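Input/output pair, single chain:
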Amino acid sequence: MEEKVYTPDEVAQIFQISKHTVYELIKRGELIAFKIGNKMRIEQQELDRFKEQQKAPVTKQSSIQNEAEGPSNPLRLAGSHDLLVEQLIKMVTQESNSVRIQPTYIGSLEGLMMLYRGQCDIAAIHLLDPSSQEYNLPFIHQLFVHEDISLIRLASREQGFIVGKGNPKKINTFHDLTRKDIRFVNRQKGSGTRFLFDSFLAKFEIAPQEVIGYEKEEWNHLSTASYISKGTADVTFGIQSAADQLGLDFIPIAKEQFDLVFKWTKGNRNALQQLLDILQDQNLQQELKHHVGYCLKQLGEIIYHSNLKET
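Output:
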């Protein structure tokens, strides 16, 4: 069962405060929210944590400590939606007093551009370069010349067709998507999954207009898979873990690399290092291994670092 999520308006009603105050709490990192597209949401678990924090008495010692340390801003993560990223953020929130992550799920390409523009600290990406057939690194080389950048492997994962239980429409190839009895649902432009799907259409010389439902877009894997679960579409292209969560069938098509891009600055260096230590902790692999469709052998491995010295 999916965890309940709340809008800022709903959170304001629960705490009897203004919506403006809710956004201020989010801005200061006291309440962690995430974005899907341009919509802000707060998970039940985060709401419960915030409620408990409000109940706890503020001691003089802790107040002095907070004044000495100053406010701790959350690390801003932008990019692709992934179930491992969700789990990582929850674990960091539960286990670390000093590192917090505020995600915006807006797609791999836009996440990388936000990192380039200095609007976030971490980009979550899985972008296939059509020319080299290499993931992620070609885009790093093109965009980041003078910045201190690390590419950290999160996982290799399976992408493929998500279909109903038993595959009732017998969908097995990309050419099956052009059948008139097949309804498709797509990911949004700029997502790594959309990049990969479009590359396969080009490979098999299939025009987008031949796929019924190509123009119907959703912002994450569970949203697209839910169309199949509800019977309003016959197939989508996504990750095995989403199919597994909703009890759907999965037809593997490709393996891809899902990575985190760190942009190191004076302001975030300590927090990023702590996050890297968490990613390289063997216990994390044990915590995440129950998710199907992922290979975690390289979890936390530094695939690339720019080796620039901080000035």
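The longest strand covers residues 149-163. The radius of gyration is 21 Å.
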